[in-house]
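User: I'm preparing a small set of examples for a lab meeting where we compare how different chains pack in three dimensions. I only have the primary sequence for this one, and I'd like the structure in token form so I can line it up with the others. Please keep the answer compact; I'll paste it straight into my notes.
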Amino acid sequence: MASTKREKELARQRAERQAARRAAAAQRRKQRNVVIASAAAVLLVAVAAVTLGVVASGGDDADVVTPAAAATPAASTEPSAAPSGSAEPSASAASDEAGTCTYEKTSEPAAKQVALPPGTDVEFEQVFTVTMATNRGDVVFDMDSAEAPCTANSLRSLAHFAYFDDTPCHRLTTEGIKVLQCGDPSGTGGGGPGYQFADENLEGASYPRGTVAMANAGEGTNGSQFFLVYEDSQLPPNYTPFGVITEGLEVLEEVAAGGSDESNGTGDGKPKLPVQVETLRVAPKAA
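Assistant: Understood. Below is the structure token output for the 287-residue chain.
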């Protein structure tokens, strides 16, 4: 009986520590994510939403950081940016309770076969260093599991299975928003890992230069695709920010300077300077 009481007390203390860490992380996010409320910013968001279709409108072709349907080539039936799945039931919550995450299988097969990420004993307090080696140079970013634990857990799992290795960054946007999008082994913009999970870290989210965030096909449809922001971009807080680039922004800027092939519309398509992810590795950040 004494042992059971001790275990309950330890569990209670652990939950309190995790709650305190999450509260501290939320405070850091509020300090970091400055919400720009000027009329110019509002106008820019409206223009981006109209011209780039950043808000899903109910069809498989309307995805995050995706051109509007009118700008998509008529012959294309695949989503052009985020994983397919807007018709799937949305994940109601990424994290059910401290230390657990929910990952739901989708009807669409995985672009590259991987196991589901572990849903229990999820790391909630470690900062990781993610190194994405590309044919253009390395891009390195910090990923704090206290801010988006289930997103970080998924990325670590996918990296473990070499999911991102030898895959293209299939989309470059140079108008309205300034991002390079990666994470689809098929290179079509419609591929994903065969599962989805809910959004995280959205309160007060903004997308300044150096942000790494999840692409999606609507609420609760995160998979494997993510975008790297190479210049401040105005987007609604709908896309889980989970990383901050520490090295390699010049790589993104060089690719952006090369322009896109505009296959999705003006300033939006495959990068003219092809970007191939050679490896993506995750390790605990050195003290």
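A couple of notes for your slides: The helical segments are 2-32, 39-52, 149-160, 249-258. Residues 2-32 form the longest helix (31 residues).

User: Perfect, thanks.
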